[in-house]
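User: I'm curious whether this sequence folds into something compact or stays loose and floppy. Could you predict its structure so I can see for myself?
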Amino acid sequence: MQKIEIRSFTDKDFRKEYGIPLELSVDPEQISFGKNIFYREDKQLGSTGGDIKFEKYGPTSLSFKFTIDCTGVVEGTEKGDSVYDKVSEITNLLYVYKSDGHSPAYVIISYGELLFKGRLEKMNTQYMMFTTKGIPLRASLDISFKGFMSGEEERKKFSKQSPDMSRLVTVKEGETLPYLCHRLYGDSLLVREVARFNELDSFRNIPAGTQLLFPPLKKN
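Assistant: Here's the prediction. I'll summarize afterward.
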């Protein structure tokens, strides 16, 4: 039986794995995968309508529900298994602050042909079927993730798109980021936004040959 596998990482490049991969022993009840796009309204003064201009793609999302069953009727569970322990294992992998990365984990989720990179957005746990001592035997988890791409992955993705959406530029000798922002946007003051989008520590002294992605930005 195919299982959902969740791997946790402390870095955004998915190189420093945290702990051991977690396999969910039961099939998810459902899997939802979402995409979204952000637009900005382009209205003229006094108009009630107007065009909506493409601004950027929003992060993808993934959510699914599954049940942890420690009643002994589910294959793969053993007598003495604890619902609390299994929920704690998932919580530690996805939610707990990782000191190495100074944030909660980045995760890779695989299930069949599905491969998703992202971070936990929300996790709701509902406990059910309690023993006479108040110990739960089942828990229903509803988990959602927000998609994540490193700057390098995003540049590779958008470099194949229409130049009306984004432009991949190779910096030439003598060119500066303010100059390129002025040439492409007509506004050199957008340097900080472009630098942040390309994960640059500084917008000064960018070596020739560096590839930068210039996303759709509104002129100030």
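Summary: Residues 167 and 214 are 5 Å apart (CA to CA). The longest strand covers residues 114-130.
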